[in-house]
Amino acid sequence: MTEVNTDIKNKVELIKEKAKLSRLETIRLIAKAKSGHYGSSFSSSEIFATLYYHVMNYDPENHRWKSRDRFVMGKGHSAVGVYPILADVGFFPKEELDTYTDLGSPFGDHPDMNKIKGIDFGSGSIGHGLSVGVGMSLGARLDNEDYRTFILMGDGEMQEGQVWEAAMSAANFKLGNLIGIVDNNKVTVDGHTHEMMNIEPLKEKWESFGWNVIEVDGHNIEKLIETFDNLPQANSDIPTVIIADTIAGKGVSFMEHGYEWHVANLGEDDIKRAVEEIEGGQ
Questions:
Q1: Which positions fall inside the Transketolase N-terminal domain (predicted)?
Q2: Those residues with Cβ within 8 angstroms of residue 110's Cβ, 6 or more apart along the chain or in another chain
Q3: Second label for 74, Cα 20 to 30 Å away, from 99, 118, 128, 166?
Q4: How far apart, in Å, are the Cα atoms of 10 and each of 7, 20, 36?
Q5: 282: confidence class by pLDDT, cuts 50, 70, 90
């Protein structure tokens, strides 16, 4: 028992450090681009790190491996937070990130599956991710593969009608190999979600569409590990959505909960303060 607890403790510490890496590199890359998505990238950092360092099956040396788990970012504007993790696990050299948003660079504000190894879908307009995930999950069924498809969506994305068409389809086709993750950080680019277009009651809505629903603190790594470790088998009949309660701008006190940091740029003094807070975070 002690040995198992030690393993989990070590895994939690690893994921915590990789979430910090995601946040620190997000700051560095956005400083280079002079504009970017801090809030929604920081709210997803622990989710990114848990997926890539604990949950998903993939091979950086064979990025199109047929049996790999798929990861689709509906909220593709948070790609700046996942690029550093893809580099860290070996999909491409870390030095390539230094070209972020340069003319001709593969690394843009949104991910491009045709240019970046490790990206399974090139996102853009919000709301398409779950539909893509349904297609990938159906493909796994047709090919007798047992991989899972993970879709990260924003809570503002729940305002898109296409999300709910896809949700209905996933339940209809009994896609238990499809895992939705809602980054429920309560903000959109223009304001707080409940003020712009209220999406609640979110849990009951997903349940009414025939999904298994799990609610979790999206920054609690132990709970995230437990949640992912206890997912239904990929060959089950009911899709699962994880509603992750998160904080926009998590890790930087003057950003937290603020929709103003959805798209922004930090001055030099604020960069220094943000980096100090992230590096000193527990």
A1: 19-274
A2: 76, 77, 79, 122, 123, 124
A3: 99
A4: 5, 15, 32
A5: low
Taken in order of first residue, the domains within the chain and their CATH numbers are 2-280 (3.40.50.970)
* DSSP assignment letter at 231: P
Instruction: Answer yes or no: is pLDDT of 224 > 50.
Output: yes
Q: With beta carbons less than 8 A apart as the criterion, state whether 125 and 160 touch.
A: no
Q: What is the pLDDT of residues 167-213, one digit of tens each?
A: 999 999 999 999 999 999 999 888 888 888 999 999 999 999 999 99
The angle, 0 to 180 degrees and rounded to 10, between the axes of the packed helices 129-142 and 161-172 is 20
Judge whether residue 137 has pLDDT over 90. yes
What is the C-alpha to C-alpha distance for residues 80 and 36, in angstroms, rounded to an integer? 8
Q: Return the percent helix, strand and coil in the chain, to nearest 5.
A: 45, 10, 40
Predicted local distance difference test score (pLDDT) of residue 3: 38
CB 43 within 8 A of CB 185: yes
CB 196 within 8 A of CB 156: yes
- 233, with CB counted inside 10 A (0-12, 13-18, 19+), is exposed
Is there a contact between 236 and 211 (Cβ–Cβ < 8 Å)?
no
Q: Letter for the amino acid at 212?
A: N
Q: Do 120 and 58 form a contact (C-beta atoms < 8 A)?
A: no
